[in-house]
Amino acid sequence: MNQVKLIPYKTEEVLETSAEIPRGVQMIEAEEVWKESGRGEGSVVAILDTGCQTDHPDLEGRIIGGKNFTKDYNGDPDIYEDNNGHGTHVAGTISAIKNNKGVVGVAPLSSLLILKVLTGEGNGDYKGIIQAIEHAIEWEGPKGEKVRVISMSLGGPDDSEELHTAITKAVEKGISIVCAAGNEGDGKSNTAEFAYPGAYNEVIQVGAVDHNRKLADFTNTNDQIDLVAPGVKVLSTYLEGKYAKLSGTSMATPHISGALALLIPMVESQFQRKMSEAEIFSQLIKRTTPLGYSKTAEGNGLLTLSLTNKLEELFSVFTNS
């Protein structure tokens, strides 16, 4: 079965403590929609990664379940602790709690289903990922919750028909799948770099920008990029209850996964019905701002969650004047 790896990333800094809303969360304007989205309460995001430090103080009450699909911990399916650090960092960006210390995630009341598909060394295979996707599709929480978002900051060079089929099935079931574009970029938008599953048309493929909205020189560029999010020196939760600043499209991906955890309850409340994955994708892309790069580099642009609210305010000024 084809091998898949943790997309290489860079550890910029490890911190003992922190007390701030990370700049990436601010950049995508998550706070501006917290009130109308209930901070993502009721949304379940499945994270396919290296596991998670389940007792990290900033993730208290956020983890709704999990399963191990690797050989780590003697293959015990019930132990999905993070022995790498990557998965815990991703988890914090999505839903670290707002407790006036540490960090806060994009959707601080969303729930996480931790599916460990990568070992402590960052290795895995498509078989485990396919099993995890199928588990996420079938999973049901104690209150009837269902997974609406799958976050995958991983990739491999090989296309897999079986993996593609599993992803297509999940999307048809109304699950949005968010994938990292990869970090093999050469800084040129006219050369394409592909990593799977990010390159599949059915997924939401995320590239990375820095805090100055400049395209990261490592981010993959190709004709399937959907949008970009902060992915340079991203501050989030880390092993041993610590915090770290990491760089990579792996860090951009959970910003979008968390944003979907906000958007789904928000727009379904507005429309008074469950929406399809394609409709949710449309609502996501409506909230992007072009940065001036080619479409193969930035897709539709940078996620800016309160954009539609600002446009509505602008139009109301014109119509009432």
TrEMBL record:
The keyword Lipid metabolism does not apply. One of its GO terms (biological process) is proteolysis. Residues 40-289 form the Peptidase S8/S53 domain. The active site is at D49, H86, S250. One of its GO terms (cellular component) is extracellular region. It is found in: Secreted. PROSITE patterns: SUBTILASE, SUBTILASE_ASP, SUBTILASE_HIS, SUBTILASE_SER. This is S8 family peptidase. SUPFAM superfamilies: Subtilisin-like (SSF52743). Its main location: secreted. It comes from Halobacillus yeomjeoni. The keyword Protease applies. One of its GO terms (molecular function) is metal ion binding. CDD domains: Peptidases_S8_Subtilisin_subset (cd07477). Its cofactor is Ca(2+). Keywords: Calcium, Hydrolase, Metal-binding, Protease, Secreted, Serine protease. Belongs to the peptidase S8 family. InterPro entries: Peptidase_S8/S53_dom, Peptidase_S8/S53_dom_sf, Peptidase_S8_Asp-AS, Peptidase_S8_His-AS, Peptidase_S8_Ser-AS, Peptidase_S8_subtilisin-like, Peptidase_S8_subtilisin-rel, Subtilisin_Carlsberg-like.
